[in-house]
Amino acid sequence: MMMNRKSVWGALALLVLLTGCATSRSVVSIPAGEIKPAQVANGKTVYFASLTDARVFEAKPKEPNIPSLDPSESQSAEIQARAIARKRNGYGKALGDILLPADETAPALVRKSLEKAFVEQGYTVITDPTQVKPDTFVVDVAVTKMWAWMNPGFMALTLSAEVATDLKIKQAEQARSESLAVKESAQFQTGMESNWVEVVQKALAAFTEQAKQKLAQ
Length: 217
Description:
Structural class: alpha/beta
Strand content: 25-35%
Number of strands: 8
Radius of gyration: 20 Å
Number of helices: 4
Shape: elongated
Distance between the termini: 61 Å
Largest sheet: 5 strands, mixed
Strand order of the largest sheet: 5-2-6-7-8
Helix content: 25-40%
């Protein structure tokens, strides 16, 4: 059965509603979660020595969870570091990017979540390398995933976000590796920017909790 003109316009309106301003590049800020320091410090210190963006971007990925950028926009390293999602229309076609503000990066966002985990487990975070002592935990962070994406649906769309890292933790003569990975999803009626922010925050909060569990072991 052919759709009448009213139904066609209704369907088009729904697509616009679901995807928002999908064709343009958006900039969003992800508010940091409130840090709740441990009631009693454990006397341990931690220093984040290096932070690497190890995410792999593809020009035309087959799946939306693989990072990519709009080819009609800037592809610089600075833009890639700020990228956290790629918008899509109601048919799943990749469109505009979602970036963090110019003074923020995806890896730095993940590191803040890690710092939160350490502080809430009683550690003191050192930012000055001259204050590092033999018993300080020295952490190298490689962010392998920090990405959000959309899967279209009939009555609602699903936004998902993944966060994953490979950590190298050294203390005195000891060293170990840890891998953390989380995925969170939620359904929404629209692809408005606040919904993207919400699902990314949800993933970062889950990432912090997983890190805290690792530290408690």
